[in-house]
Amino acid sequence: YRSRRDYMYGRLRAMGLAVVEPMGAFYMFPSIEKYGLSSEEFCRRMIVEAKVAAVPGTCFGAEGFLRLSYCYSMEEIETGLDRMEAFLGKLEEKLS
């Protein structure tokens, strides 16, 4: 799991997301505040537009964040993060 954690952490940081490296658990909570969407709207759009599921931060009392798990195969993590990166690119185009 350490290699999956390290990979996900590096990818999220490379996407420009603020995220704290977890020392335990199997989850990361990147900030999505800069996109101006509620965490529920962000997650809804990401599943519809990018086919990537995440849990809204509001489920944990943390609006502006989302929860991603790295309890998947490396291949699934890579695919999900590739899709998420493309989704973020589209959101950033709209912000410009």
Task: Walk me through this protein's architecture.
There is one protein chain. With 96 residues, the protein is mainly alpha-helical. It contains 3 helices and 3 strands. The chain has a 3-stranded antiparallel β-sheet with strand order 1-3-2, covered by helices on one side. α1 packs parallel to α3 (74-95). The model has no long low-confidence stretch (mean pLDDT 95).
Model regions low in confidence, pLDDT < 50 over at least 5 residues: none
Identify the strand order in the major beta sheet: 1-3-2
Number of strands: 3
The arrangement of helices and strands along the chain is HEHEEH
Strand proportion, as a percent range, falls in 5-15%
Radius of gyration: 12 Å
Any descriptors?
single chain; 96 residues; mainly alpha; three-stranded antiparallel beta sheet; 3 helices; 49% helix
Describe the structure concisely for a colleague.
The chain has 96 residues and is mainly alpha-helical.
Topology:
Elements: H1 2-14, E1 27-28, H2 39-50, E2 55-56, E3 66-69, H3 74-95
Antiparallel strand pairs: 1-3, 2-3
